[in-house]
């Protein structure tokens, strides 16, 4: 005898191990919808100042919770990003250029926030649509992200050189 919806002792659950459960299918669908939506939103935001690329990576990370291809893409993206960031801090000229660019980006953002209107020589109404406090804060955030990731990259690069950590080698958690 069984309680409603619960099989009695010794009864099979009806799952063979090959077919994903209804809940598993829903997780995949939800990950695909949310992750895909984030990827599309990030791609739309790419040409604008702000975190378009970060949103794309967040979408891939959401999909990586359920799909092996997305997990592999996320690992490749992480490794390429690490290599690019590592190259940016390997020499003093590169490091100073990265930090100066980030500070200039923050300066542009602060200017956008503080200056209400600019008389553009061409397409004045077009540029005025984007010259808003929201744009300024996004630009400031972008420059801040560059500074933070650069500081973290310096710290990780030094730990890697000292042999304390291995950054790009896959761990068991990454593979499975």
UniProtKB/TrEMBL annotation:
Keywords: Membrane, Transmembrane, Transmembrane helix. It comes from the Bacteria. Residues 1-20 are annotated as: Disordered. This is TIGR02611 family protein. It holds the Pfam family PGPGW. It comes from Nocardioides iriomotensis. The keyword Transmembrane applies. The chain crosses the membrane at residues 29-46, 52-74, 95-114, 134-156.
């Amino acid at each position: 005898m069984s309680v409603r919806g619960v099989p009695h002792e010794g009864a099979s659950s009806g799952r063979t191990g090959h077919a994903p459960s209804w809940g598993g299918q829903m997780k995949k669908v939800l990950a695909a919808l949310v992750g895909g939506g984030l990827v599309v939103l990030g791609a739309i935001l790419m040409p604008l100042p702000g975190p378009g690329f970060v949103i794309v990576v967040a979408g891939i990370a959401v999909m990586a919770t359920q799909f092996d291809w997305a997990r592999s893409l996320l690992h490749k993206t992480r490794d390429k990003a690490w290599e690019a960031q590592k190259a940016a801090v390997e020499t003093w000229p590169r490091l100073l250029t990265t930090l100066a660019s980030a500070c200039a980006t923050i300066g542009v953002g602060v200017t956008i926030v503080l200056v209400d209107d600019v008389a553009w020589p061409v397409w004045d109404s077009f540029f005025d649509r984007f010259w808003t406090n929201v744009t300024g804060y996004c630009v400031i955030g972008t420059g801040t992200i560059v500074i933070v990731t650069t500081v973290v990259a310096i710290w990780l690069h030094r730990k890697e050189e000292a042999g304390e950590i291995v950054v790009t080698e896959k761990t068991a958690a990454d593979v499975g």
